Amino acid sequence: MKGKVVLAYSGGLDTSVAVKWIQEKYDSEVVTVTLDIGQVDDVGELKEKSCKTGSVAHYTINAQKEFIEDYVFPSIKANGLYEGKYPLGTALGRPLIAAKLVEVANKEGCYAIAHGCTGKGNDQVRLDVTVQALNPKLKIIAPIRECNLTRDQEVEYAKSHGIPISHKARKYSIDQNLWGRAIEGGPLEDPSIEASNDVLEWSKPVEDTPNESEYLELEFHGGVPVSVNGKKMGGVELVNLVNHKAGSHGIGVIDHLEDRLVGIKSREVYEAPAAVTIIEAHKDLEKLVLTRNQVEFKAIVEQRWAWLVYSGLWVDPLRVNLNNFIDSTQKKVEGKVKIKLFKGNAGVVSRSSPYSLYDSELATYSSSSTFNQKTAEGFTDLWGLSSRVAHNVNFEKSKEDDTD
Ligand code: ARG
To answer: Are residues 14 and 157 in the same domain?
Structure first.
């Protein structure tokens, strides 16, 4: 034996095949690691399956709190949405998975890290880049990518090597954590066909949602949610609760035509009820407490932040710089936002903050207004000056051209 390899393990076909493949082709022992960031149903079953497949050790690491506080919270502050739509669930999970794999590899004295990613997706990039940044000595093994394996070949390999695989036909490829479910493949590969409701597990099909609306009051402190309907709770509990409540009203289904890092366009369906609701509320509260300049400039930063995270560059110093800027805008993002949940829509209906910049004496149309309308005359005169001059010159010019 050449040594030990640590494998990111989900218990699915790809990673089960990888266990045997690494033993055979790399003459190495395999240590499996599953990071629980909100997707593990049965820890015992997973360990048993890993051992049966031939691993020498298995770790299930519960990292839900770390995931929410160190990855999801920064994303809430950044209103993290790739291409304005995808709340980055999978993308946020990967650098944490990579960091934990490196920890176990160092502890177990492994010479390599392995994963079951294909060469077509974003996840290979996210894992490889983070692992190599954290420990450049570790080799990376990706059997599916290296051998260009198809699913049928994997099933064949599993059968001939006695690897237990679930017979439940897997229609879609699914990745899931507390911040969302990502569903792709199978019938979704035709973007011209509407996704069937059978992809949904967290969000009810809108047709089946209650005919009565429900209100949700989120309280934010330092840019992150701290309570729901007046009850303070930790991040994991809060995200679970909002997923459940918003999901029951059909909120959070995102059908996305997405540009992958490797240049492929793909069609993905996401379920992210908490992400959609919390980001909507957070954005609204920011508009109450930040200036127009801050809101507009932050939107540019947010776009770049989401791009870096999506593209697997969590470790890039620019991402850290942007987070420092974003954090500096969040100190006053404090207050309460009420959201109405109804038929697939999470709409903000009220907001308040001790740092509100809304001045009702300026905004009111009543006689108590302190706004001096007279000053607007000079303002509009100068505001439109250069545009007016240019318009008139061009207008005169086009009249001349017409008479030519
Ligand atoms: N497209 C998303 C991303 O790159 C999600 C991919 C999740 N994988 C899956 N098998 N559904 O982050």
So the answer is: yes
Residue closest via CA to ligand 1's atom 8 equals 175
Residue 182 Cα, ligand 1 centroid: separation in angstroms?
6
Residues 269 and 320 grouped into a single domain = yes
Sheet of strand 265-271: strand arrangement:
173-177, 180-184, 265-271, 253-259
Q: Are residues 14 and 144 in the same domain?
A: yes
pLDDT tops 90 at residue 41: no
Cα 261 to ligand 1 centroid, rounded to whole Å = 11
Q: Which atom of ligand 1 is nearest to the CA of 91?
A: 12
Question: Given 123, 128, 175, 284, which residue is catalytic?
Answer: 123
Q: Enter the DSSP assignment of 5.
A: E
d(CA 238, CA 32): 30
Q: Check whether residue 170 and residue 185 sit in a common domain.
A: no
Query: For residues 382 and 300, what is the distance between their CA atoms, to the nearest angstrom?
Result: 28
Instruction: Assess contact for 216 and 245: CB atoms under 8 A.
Output: yes
Residues 395 and 327 in one domain: no
**Domain of 146?**
4-174
Do both 118 and 89 map to the same domain? yes
Active site residue 255: no
Whether 152 is a known active-site residue: answer no
Cα of 130 to ligand 1 centre, how many Å? 17
For the entire predicted model, the pTM comes to: 0.95
Active site residue 94: yes
Output the domain CATH number for residue 368: 1.20.5
89-125 tens-digit pLDDT: 999 999 999 999 999 999 999 999 999 999 999 999 9
Q: How many CB atoms lie within 10 A of CB 38?
A: 22
Is 173 one of the catalytic residues?
A: yes
Q: How many domains does the chain have?
A: 3
Q: Are residues 104 and 205 in the same domain?
A: no
The tens digit of pLDDT for each residue in 353-400 reads: 999 999 999 999 999 999 999 999 999 999 999 999 999 999 888 888
